[in-house]
Design a protein that fits this description.
Number of domains: 1
InterPro entries: Atg22-like (IPR024671), ATG22/LtaA_families (IPR050495), MFS_dom (IPR020846), MFS_trans_sf (IPR036259)
Protein name: MFS transporter, UMF1 family
Distance between the termini: 9 Å
CATH architecture: Up-down Bundle
Organism: Microbulbifer donghaiensis
Oligomer: single chain
Membrane topology: Multi-pass membrane protein
Structural class: mainly alpha
Pfam family, one: ATG22
């Protein structure tokens, strides 16, 4: 049962400066998500580090690298979060993941052509740093603002993330398109430099969080050197009693389904566009549209969720995604791809932000690291359904366009299960507790 003393931690680190410092970490690390994960690494991995290798082999290697990083975090997320809570080390563990992630990202800039194994290992290290730091970053939401502001603050973080990642990405794309104007010998040199710039950006804009976000207090004594044993024992207890947190369990199941649909759209959009014959320039522009539309939209969408209820806000986002899936199955012209990118940008950050803040309302505040570990576990395992379903529908019906229709199943199922959570559970006055 959550107590007033536990909830008191939310008032100790609140304040405008703490909120903005926390939100700017999203600005910092979203550069990795946009420039590295979605932008330059997949292209260089196939064309530079796997030069002379068939596309199927290169994609398989990349798939294994992504899977390895996600699996490490998915399996370790609950333990990492629980340790952070008990030791009062959410921020310190965030940095313990982020700093090696930054270094590995920077080192990618020096990997020579053909060295796919070295590039893979560094990519896994960088991705683990990125994903692990995000886990602790999410958990800090409950300590930088009071519950009544969690929806707005979560939206601010995602909004700044879209803007920051988009700004660096457009700069890196400009350098790759006009390398001589930026002092690079060729496009490959400019693309490699993007990794060093991403690491520098990530490090620089992490400083506000380091300086002005206070470490939440520990929930257990670290004396006697038994913290790990204590944490493992409590984590086993939490897993055993998680069924008593019915609303948490229902929400996580709904989140697992609909965020899988959101993630599949993110991961497969470029491949889908290429399969339909759109030029690479069209896909780059579409990605930029998502980033820059997503900046104000995530903030405004979170505020809309405050006014009409965050659950309804998520429903609106899922409805737009269903529209995107139907339209995406029939698009013919580049302008339609751009229009769909705008629609995604309008709701993508909002669904993510409201999901994070809704979950924060359902869990014990003092154990947010532990519970956000389960949240991140579900997020990492979300890729188990969407991408295979996406591919299977295209194979079964003999046309890649049917792949988009498959995702409607995830959005509808996630929305229906989400409706089983009482709307009152997401309000600022609700008291998270075991049931």
């Amino acid at each position: 049962m959550d107590t007033a003393k536990e909830k008191g931690e939310a008032t100790e680190t609140t304040g405008r400066r703490a909120v903005w410092s926390w939100a700017f970490y999203d600005w910092a690390n979203s550069a990795f998500a946009t420039v590295v994960l979605a932008g330059f690494f997949p292209l260089l991995y196939q064309d530079f580090w796997n030069a002379g290798v068939d596309a199927e082999t290169a994609n398989l290697r990349l798939g294994w690298a992504n899977a390895a990083a996600s699996l490490v975090i998915a399996l370790g997320a609950p333990l990492i979060g629980a340790l952070a809570d008990r030791a009062g080390a959410r921020k310190r563990l965030l940095l313990l993941f982020a700093v090696p992630g930054m270094l590995a990202t920077a080192l990618l800039a020096g990997v020579p052509g053909g060295a796919w194994l070295a590039a893979s290992l560094l990519f896994v290290c960088a991705s683990v740093g990125f994903l692990g730091s995000n886990l602790l970053y999410d958990a800090l939401l409950t300590s930088v603002a009071p519950p009544a502001r969690w929806h707005a603050v979560s939206g601010l973080g995602f909004g700044l993330g879209y803007l920051g990642g988009g700004l660096l990405y457009i700069g890196c794309v400009a350098a790759a398109l006009k390398p001589a104007a930026f002092g690079f010998a060729d496009t490959t040199s400019a693309a490699l430099a993007a990794f060093a710039m991403t690491a520098l950006w990530w490090a620089l804009f992490s400083l506000p969080l380091v300086l002005w976000v206070r470490e939440p207090p520990a929930t257990a004594s670290t004396a006697g050197g038994s913290l790990l044993r204590q944490t493992l024992r409590e984590l086993r207890t939490t897993i055993g009693h998680l069924r008593h947190y019915r609303t948490v369990m229902v929400f996580l199941f709904a989140y697992w389904l609909y965020i899988d649909g959101v993630g599949t759209v993110i991961r497969m959009a470029v491949a889908y566009g290429r399969a339909l014959g759109f030029e690479r320039s069209h896909l780059i522009l579409a990605l930029l549209l998502v980033q820059f539309v997503g900046f104000p939209a995530a903030i405004l969408f979170a505020r809309l969720g405050e006014r009409i209820g965050p659950q309804r806000g998520i429903y609106i986002g899922l409805a737009v995604y269903i529209l995107v899936c139907v339209w995406g199955a029939f698009i013919r012209a580049p302008w339609e791809f751009y229009a769909i990118a705008v629609l995604i940008g309008l709701v993508q950050g909002g669904v993510q932000a409201l999901s994070r803040s809704c979950y924060a309302r359902l869990i014990p505040t003092a154990r947010s690291g532990e519970f956000f570990g389960f949240y991140n576990l579900m997020g990492k395992f979300a890729a188990l359904i969407g991408p295979p379903l996406f591919g299977l529908f295209g194979s079964w019906f003999g046309d890649v366009r049917y792949s988009m229709l498959a995702l409607i199943l995830l959005f509808v199922a996630g929305g229906l299960i989400l409706s089983r959570v009482p709307a009152a559970a997401f309000t600022a006055g609700a008291e998270p507790s075991a049931e």
